[in-house]
Amino acid sequence: MKQLMAIEWLKIKKYRTFWTIMLLFGACVLLWNLGVTTGVLRLGGDGINLLGSSNSFGGIWDTVTYYTSNFVLVPAIFIIIGITNEYQFRTNRQNVIDGWTRLQFFHAKWYMMKSLALTVTLFVAVMGLVIGLITGASFAYIGDNIEKLVYMLILCANYFGFALMISVFVKRSGLAIGILMLYCMIIEMMLHFFFLFKLKLPFLDLLLPLQSSDELLPSSTFNALLKTGKFGYQPPTLTYAIVSCIWICIYYLIARRRLMRSDW
Amino acid sequence: MQSILSLQGISKAYGPIQALKNVSFDVPPGSVFGILGPNGSGKTTLLGTVLDVLKADSGNYNWLDNTPSEKARQQIGSLLETPNFYHYMSAFDNLEISASIKQRGMDDRLRVLQLVNLLERKDSKFQTFSLGMKQRLAIAAALLGNPKVLVLDEPTNGLDPAGIAEIRELIRQLNAGGMTIIMASHLLDEVEKVCTHVAILKKGDLLLSGPVDEVLHNEDQIEVRAADMNLLLQTVKELPGIGNIMQQNNTLQISITDGLTTTKLNEYLFSKGIVASHLSLKKKSLESRFMELTS
């Protein structure tokens, strides 16, 4: 594992696109979260702020994980570019010719995906601490809602694993990014609203790979609105976490099967 | 070691196209083994299969006395089809990735770049290289760690005449040092100049395999004319050591296989009362032999 990751790092560290995407992601996430938690960014009037603002760690973890989850498509796009580049330049073949097994190639990508998910989560954790310092939140309550960081990790792994799976099937970056965006922002969103507002069966979100993770980090404002309506059974957060992990395993198995059996 | 590579009944289809049909042969150690065939004959598919980037439909292969495939590939230097490198990285950094996967020392990179005359461009990005330079870098990557076996698919593609000569000389030197080289090519001249053994493919069928001298042996031809061509034909047919006889433009073209010379033929015809008005020895080209086999 260490050797596979070291070689993946060699590929990434001189890839300017990677640094550009990650810098863009980091800057957007940081500025947005700082703006919201410090109250600089506001939505609403008469003392009501729909974006919310926080001066305790319970609220900070809630806020930064939710808003960061809206940006995770950006590093997911890098996952797609990183994998489809291997197909485009046929370096996946060269890696195998040089002595990797197909499974080693797949695991190298899988570990890279997991590392990126962990890096994003660590970034959110550090950002939360910095915001806590800025807003003067009490560190005595740092553990309030800290499980949100674990949900953040699961959500990232889910989105990135989904992107990885699309990449090994589609092999072309433009098409793979298009499919990811279309599925994530339109198809799943429509199905989610259909289950929620038409069927009033929110637990059906468990059938939607990405939405099952989105439910781990819901918008507190949207949650408050939901409580005013009459909807069917809503599973506990742990169920969404378990189902998200099952989806991640499914991506692993499908992508692995594809890479092991097809021509390269 | 019995053989470097042994193929048993490899078949591979792309949909309705049968790219390889039950191909079997062995590559002896220390040989320069050419895989020869026209475009689309299955050469690259064959190499892709034994390098595990393509999956055979049936059959199997063994490298280096049943060494597990990935371990064997680490001991093999390969160039398959086009040079495959990370376009945003320098030659030196690309070789670092190859060396890491092969589990070879990084200090070998300068040696192989020197061998292919790319040392002065080691820090240039791969995307700035010409086709010939990319091909040289691919050969350099294949040579990392001084492998036991070198697999080269059309190794002189994109090289200028001087580059082609250099690579041929390099192949000869490496083979003289004990390295086994497996080389796919559609260039007969290339095979004739460097290979000791050859396998000939045509539309996925293995037509022949073995030492070059046996498979692509050069049959000499004698051209002869006389006043009475019918008598000449009848007389020549009775002579031992005669292969095919073709009559073209009032000239007999006789393929000879058993030490027959123009002198002996002339003496024989004279003894039968025939005076040859034209008698000449022609070397049959390797190309015409290849065309005979593949057409």
From TrEMBL, chain A:
It comes from the Bacteria. PROSITE patterns: PROKAR_LIPOPROTEIN (PS51257). Keywords: Membrane, Transmembrane, Transmembrane helix. The chain crosses the membrane at residues 21-44, 64-83, 116-143, 149-170, 177-197, 237-254. This is Uncharacterized protein. It comes from Taibaiella soli.
UniProtKB/TrEMBL annotation, chain B:
Pfam families: ABC_tran (PF00005). The keyword ATP-binding applies. This is ABC transporter ATP-binding protein. The keyword Methyltransferase does not apply. PANTHER family: ABC TRANSPORTER, ATP-BINDING PROTEIN (PTHR43335). InterPro entries: AAA+_ATPase (IPR003593), ABC_transporter-like_ATP-bd (IPR003439), ABC_transporter-like_CS (IPR017871), P-loop_NTPase (IPR027417). It comes from the Bacteria. Residues 5-228 form the ABC transporter domain.
